[in-house]
């Protein structure tokens, strides 16, 4: 298929009709980052025009379904504040149901309409024959095409074969042609369509994506189709389907590519392509990820990359005519900046920060004490990280030695301390001196020298006694955070374990 892009670009503000847009993911697993971007722009467009944001689940490809993904999609949208106006949970809507597998009679009726109008025909060829035709076309170096063997069947013969129980698909007649349409981002487009007659309805009664989404967009009164640019190459075919039904197509808005790095697309094979990597594994607050998705300023008036926009502010600043064709780099450096900004300057502590930190602490430190999960302690940790640890930005950073100790509450594992240092007289001597008073704490290097130890060896012992790790922050930071009295009491406990 040849794609020609023209420079002309126009934007209709959709004042003449109600704006109705849809986010239509397939329930095949965790939501993709590109899917979140598509949902965000549909949401912004709808709210900017006082329109309707619809969630439609496209599950016609039954072989790829992940049952739990239905709920995952809805919960992900709620987590990011992208609440739909119509969707699977909507009751008493004239446009539902919003799950395609529950709309099969509608697609069957549409396919029969195409057959009756001679725009499509029933094809009874076996999968083996179709595969053979495809293989022969490839051998000759030609575009794989169905040879239209069944198009010559009379209506009576086709009906008789249907009544006889023969399996069939419904194929749309697609003659070679140039298709012209306008995209509100990529301008005037001409696509040369030269391909096989497309299957509209499969032999199992399920529609293909191409039929189902066109029929649903028509029946749900979708005014604008906002989706990733990867679907731009199929838009010509979709316009042919609209024409076959004599329906007016919606307006198209295709969003540019998400890049993992310069020149490399973010692929579904990448672990960082999915939302659960960012929210659960990496630990990023939703508002930070939403801001990353508008970082190139696409569609946001007077966009300031150094500030964090709330969802309401995004809606207010949204200008669809500013959506550009610049690909968006999923920049990890900027994600870290935005994540820290969201955590320490934007989020509500009790409603967002507290459950966020508790979730990641329990995920990373399964045996964490209840004291470490208390609001008082987490607030103390939060203030410490904000003031002294500029590198902390993600929930997953809790797993690092530089930060994990904050949730140990100074309760090192006595068995590990004894295993590592129990037979070392220097350890017993230093423990006794540190447990006696606060004087020794002020000159740890002097203490190490006085007992014949190296400073690094003493520091490793003190850290393990206090926070269960030999690596970590300066001892002064540990003392500053927990308090000297707490540290002295801890050393007294360790001292007793040596006896």
UniProtKB/TrEMBL annotation:
Residues 18-323 form the Glutamyl/glutaminyl-tRNA synthetase class Ib catalytic domain. GO terms for molecular function: ATP binding; glutamate-tRNA ligase activity; glutamate-tRNA(Gln) ligase activity; tRNA binding; zinc ion binding. It comes from Diploscapter pachys. Keywords: Aminoacyl-tRNA synthetase, ATP-binding, Ligase, Nucleotide-binding, Protein biosynthesis. Coiled coil: none annotated. GO terms for biological process: glutamyl-tRNA aminoacylation. The keyword Transcription regulation does not apply. Its EC number is 6.1.1.17, 6.1.1.24. It catalyses: tRNA(Glu) + L-glutamate + ATP = L-glutamyl-tRNA(Glu) + AMP + diphosphate; tRNA(Gln) + L-glutamate + ATP = L-glutamyl-tRNA(Gln) + AMP + diphosphate; tRNA(Glx) + L-glutamate + ATP = L-glutamyl-tRNA(Glx) + AMP + diphosphate. Gene3D superfamilies: 1.10.10.350, HUPs. GO terms for cellular component: mitochondrion. It is found in: Mitochondrion. Belongs to the class-I aminoacyl-tRNA synthetase family. Glutamate--tRNA ligase type 1 subfamily. The lineage of its organism: Eukaryota, Metazoa, Ecdysozoa, Nematoda, Chromadorea. It comes from the Eukaryota. InterPro entries: aa-tRNA-synth_I_codon-bd_sub2, aa-tRNA-synth_I_CS, aa_tRNA-synth_I_cd-bd_sf, Glu-tRNA-ligase_bac/mito, Glu/Gln-tRNA-synth, Glu/Gln-tRNA-synth_Ib_cat-dom, GluQ/Sye, GluRS_core. This is Nondiscriminating glutamyl-tRNA synthetase EARS2, mitochondrial. It holds the Pfam family tRNA-synt_1c.
């Amino acid at each position: 298929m040849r794609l020609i892009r023209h420079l002309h670009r126009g934007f209709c503000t959709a004042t003449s009709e109600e704006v109705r847009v849809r986010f239509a993911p397939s329930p095949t697993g965790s939501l993709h980052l590109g899917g979140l971007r598509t949902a965000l722009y549909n949401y912004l467009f709808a709210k900017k025009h006082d329109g309707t944001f619809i969630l439609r689940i496209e599950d016609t490809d039954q072989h790829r379904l992940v049952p739990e993904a239905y709920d995952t999609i809805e919960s992900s949208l709620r987590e990011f504040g992208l609440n739909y106006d119509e969707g699977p949970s909507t009751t008493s809507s004239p446009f539902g149901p919003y799950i395609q597998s529950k709309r099969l009679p509608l697609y069957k009726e549409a396919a029969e309409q195409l057959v009756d109008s001679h725009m499509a025909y029933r094809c009874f060829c076996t999968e083996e024959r179709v595969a053979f035709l495809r293989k022969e076309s490839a051998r000759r170096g030609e575009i794989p095409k169905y040879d239209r063997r069944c198009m010559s069947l009379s209506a009576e013969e086709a009906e008789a074969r249907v009544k006889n129980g023969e399996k069939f698909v419904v194929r749309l007649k697609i003659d070679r042609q140039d298709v012209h349409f306008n995209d509100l981002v990529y301008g005037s487009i001409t696509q040369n369509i030269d391909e096989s007659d497309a299957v509209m309805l499969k032999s199992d009664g399920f529609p293909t994506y191409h039929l189902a989404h066109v029929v649903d967009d028509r029946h749900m009164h979708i005014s604008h189709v906002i989706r990733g640019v990867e679907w731009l190459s199929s838009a010509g075919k979709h316009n042919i389907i609209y024409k076959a039904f004599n329906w007016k197509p919606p307006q198209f808005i295709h969003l540019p590519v998400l890049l993992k790095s310069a020149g490399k697309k973010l692929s579904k094979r990448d672990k960082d392509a999915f939302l659960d990597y960012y929210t659960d594994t990496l630990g990023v607050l939703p508002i930070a990820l939403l801001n990353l998705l508008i970082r190139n300023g696409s569609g946001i008036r007077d966009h300031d990359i150094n500030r964090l926009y709330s969802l309401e502010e995004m809606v207010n600043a949204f200008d669809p005519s500013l959506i550009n064709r610049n690909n968006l780099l999923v920049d990890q450096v900027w994600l870290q900046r935005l994540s820290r900004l969201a955590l320490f300057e934007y989020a509500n502590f009790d409603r967002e920060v507290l459950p966020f930190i508790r979730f990641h602490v329990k995920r990373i430190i399964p045996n964490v004490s209840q004291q470490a999960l208390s609001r008082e302690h987490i607030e103390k940790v939060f203030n410490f990280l904000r003031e002294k640890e500029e590198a902390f930005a993600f929930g997953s950073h809790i797993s690092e030695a530089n930060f994990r100790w904050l949730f140990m509450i100074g309760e090192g594992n006595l068995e590990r301390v004894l295993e590592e240092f129990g037979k070392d007289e220097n350890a017993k001597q230093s423990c006794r001196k540190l447990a006696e008073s606060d004087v020794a704490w002020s000159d740890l290097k002097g203490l190490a020298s006085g007992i014949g130890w190296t400073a690094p060896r003493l520091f490793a012992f003190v850290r393990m006694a206090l926070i269960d790790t030999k690596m970590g922050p300066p001892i002064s930071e540990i003392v500053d955070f927990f308090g000297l009295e707490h540290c002295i009491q801890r050393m007294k406990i360790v001292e007793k374990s040596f006896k």
